[in-house]
Amino acid sequence: MIVQVGNVKIGGPQFTVIAGPCSIESEGQFRQTSESVKKSGAALLRGGIWKMRTSPKSFQGLGQSAFDFIKKVKNETGLGLVSEVTDIRQIEEISPFVDAFQVGARNMHNYSLLKELGHQPKPVLLKRNFSAFIDEWLKAADYVAQGGNQNVILCERGIRTFETATRNTLDLNAVVYAKKNSHFPVVVDPSHAVGISELVAPLCFAAAAAGADGLIVEVHPEPAKALSDGDQALTLEGFDKMMKQLEKVLNAFDRTLKM
């Protein structure tokens, strides 16, 4: 199955990279990151307008104050935006600014949200909950599809295991299984899976080799100053280097990068 996000097709023969900051922090940060990842070969942008955070004291996103400049940056770069929706009330509000709704890991079991997203036409990127069985993940996708919206993209973002050396454990088994047992495209989020920036690139290559349809990668101009998840964000230079190496991996499997 192919899902159209803006002018980009996910699930076809080409490999799609979605890249950008965990949170949209300012107009300058979002513009700089967007222009850079586009130059490096990203086909779509990512960036949180609202963020679900473990601590209520953490940065929760800019919300409505970011709407105007998000629209400007999108127009300037020509790239579509994938952004997280955390509440049913946000769907209509951010719909004019996003090309696909992301459902974060914490909301994978939020069936009311999934049903509502099934009643609107924009694609839904559904992240696997860090404690969810693959079957639960696939059934969550069915909640969206049964509402009438077949445009679902599955996203493996790591699961919680006994291992504590990394943030989560990237489950490449799930990528291969979902590709063979569902008709939805599958992308991988190596940033949340590992939580350590220097380990992100190798997991990008592994995901491509495992047959994923694409990646969603966190990138920040100055990760040390990021308001959320800086430890797992690639620098602009690091992302560019990763993308050059990724093309070589894809070519080894007779695949190409969607630009």
Would you kindly provide a written description of the structure presented here, covering whatever features stand out?
The chain has a single domain, classed as Aldolase class I (TIM Barrel). 37% of the residues lie in helices and 17% in strands. It is an alpha/beta fold and 259 residues long. The chain has an 8-stranded parallel β-barrel, surrounded by 4 helices. Strands 1-2 form a two-stranded antiparallel sheet. The longest helix has 17 residues, at 236-252. It is built from 9 helices and 11 strands.
The average pLDDT value, as a whole number, equals 94
Question: What fraction of residues sit in β-strands?
Answer: 15-25%
Structural class: alpha/beta
Number of helices: 9
Largest sheet: 8 strands, parallel, barrel
Tally of discrete structural domains: 1
Q: In percent, how helical is the residue content?
A: 25-40%
In short:
The chain contains nine helices and eleven strands.
Structural key phrases:
37% helix, globular, 11 strands, 9 helices, 259 residues, single chain, alpha/beta, TIM Barrel
Write the layout of secondary structure elements.
Blueprint: E1 3-5, E2 8-10, E3 14-20, H1 27-40, E4 44-46, H2 67-77, E5 80-84, H3 90-94, E6 100-103, H4 111-117, E7 124-127, H5 134-146, E8 152-156, H6 172-181, E9 186-188, H7 190-194, H8 197-210, E10 214-218, H9 236-252, E11 256-257
Parallel strand pairs: 3-4, 3-10, 3-11, 4-5, 5-6, 6-7, 7-8, 8-9, 9-10
Antiparallel strand pairs: 1-2
